[in-house]
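Q: I have 409 residues here and want to know how they pack in 3D. Can you give me a structure?
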Amino acid sequence: MNVLVLNSGSSSQKSCLYEIGDTLPAEPPACIWEGKIEWSDDQAEYSIRNSRGASKNEMVPAGSRGEAIERLLQSLWSGDTQAISGPSEIDVVGHRVVHGGLRHFEPAIVTERIKTAIEVASVFAPLHSRAELQGMEIVEKLLGAVPQLAVFDTGFHRTMPPSASTYPGPYEWFEQGIRRYGFHGINHQYCAERAAQLLGKKMGSLRQVTCHLGNGCSLAAIREGRSVDTTMGFTPLEGLMMGTRSGTVDPGILTYLIRQRQFSAPQLDDVLNKKSGLLGVSGISSDMREILDASRKGHARSRLALDIYVHRLQSGIGAMIAVLGGVDVLVFTAGVGENSPEVRAAVCDNFAFLGLRLDQTKNTKSPSDEDISAPDATVRVLVIHAQEDWMIARECWNLVHSAPTRVRP
């Protein structure tokens, strides 16, 4: 069966097509087609390739988001990057949905009711939710009645206890839906499962801290395969320092800026989400590679940005370990987590007292899906390639095989 996955971001669109047989493979397979659009100002950058090696990279005037996504998906069955003969060969479509709100945690077949629920929850993540709903509408337009599945990024964290999910404000907040939801759940869940597989252990026997470090960053404390705490909260702004997001700051700063500097809500939102983090402190970039390069060259603010980033990571990991009552596995994933041996080494340096030590040779190779711990370490450190799209495709496969009468085979 052919499974198409749409991963819709506020300024990007990723899509991939998996070909899956009658049994799920033990290892995540490669896509037979994948495409990406990144929007900047009035330009749209397309990157498309198929498994035969054909590829296309071009920058074009942006136009509307809907037109761009239609163009991307049509390259699946037309042109040099064609992977299938026509849209009828797609059996099911999966969508990453950032926020399921208060009611939706498990993957759900897309119906009018589910779309309404996503729209209601859009108050929590408006840019992402609008993009996700638009993707569903475009699939309906291009592919007709093909079944679609919504997989919620907040779903994995539904197992957090009330002590972790409730803010210490008026209880009315919690009753109004103001609570800690957590994000990056699809990849945190995948990494926990993959770590157990790589170590030959049962999920129920492990205490894991998973570190999703990309432009957005979050940690999860996972006990017996269940999320018991995470660093992101009501929105993806809480927690660690990120590329352009501040992470957690003293709320008094915000009231000060409102009272003394007459900041408006849109101004606060812009500063905290787009002008803070690595970019805000360094003044040069939100990209960790550029921060590391500038730091080596003596750029003081880049060095400070790196030090804050590592400090907050260490503090966050320490908090997750305390919640778990110890740790067996530490996982690094996503862009920075997978590709920056310097960040991994700096973060792990202070945890030697726990029996957590890196094999420096393995670490410097920036491996993927590998144990990089020293042979005598008692805590295993793994680098695992992020596989959100595969997790969504897997849920689609499960849907078709568990409910064959409800979807097209």
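Q: Anything worth noting?
A: The domain at 200-383 is CATH 3.30.420.40 (Nucleotidyltransferase; domain 5). Residues 254 and 260 are 10 Å apart (CA to CA).
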